[in-house]
Amino acid sequence: MTQVNTQAAIRVVAGVIGQANQVLVAQRHPDKAYISWWEFPGGKVEADESDQQALARELKEELGVTVAVGAPIVETEYDYGDKRILLCSYWCTLAKGEPEALSHQAIHWSEPNRLDPAVFSAADKPLLAKLQADTQIVCEA
């Protein structure tokens, strides 16, 4: 019999920072869960935050940048077994600073179609598929 995870989904936001038809991706730090997976940077939404506030805070903490959070892209719910997450992604535009890997092992700019879905976290794969299906990255912040 299959066990069903009845926990409420944790709301998580991810930012797609587009620049010159490329997007910024980040590799999880070695001391984090699910090490070495690539993801779109972001994090958990706190109880007193909107998605946009949480994403701006997380990108400041993780990358040292200030962003303008724009239009939503896609929402994905994924059950990792020990937790369920609802990943809400948004277009972001750099407003101040250059991204640095402050809480990731590495960051990388790439055209979406050059990214390998096999190395991305499961929750990020539908977002990556959507970006790869689009012929040109247009940031809608």
Protein architecture, described:
The protein is an alpha+beta fold and 141 residues long. 16% of the residues lie in helices and 40% in strands. The protein starts with 9 loop residues before the first strand and ends in an 8-residue tail after the last helix. The model has no long low-confidence stretch (mean pLDDT 90).
Specify the overall morphology.
globular
Distance between the termini: 46 Å
DSSP, total strands: 7
Helical residue percent band: 10-25%
- Radius of gyration, rounded? 14 Å
Order of helices and strands: EEEEHEEEH
Structural class: alpha+beta
Low-confidence stretches: none
Largest sheet: 7 strands, mixed
What's the overall average pLDDT, rounded? 90
Annotation field: number of helices: 2
Measured by DSSP, the beta-strand proportion falls in 35-45%
Which features does this protein show?
single chain; 141 residues; alpha+beta
Layout of strands and helices, then pairs:
Blueprint: E1 10-19, E2 22-28, E3 38-39, E4 42-44, H1 51-63, E5 66-79, E6 84-96, E7 104-110, H2 125-133
Parallel strand pairs: 1-6
Antiparallel strand pairs: 1-2, 1-4, 2-3, 2-7, 5-6
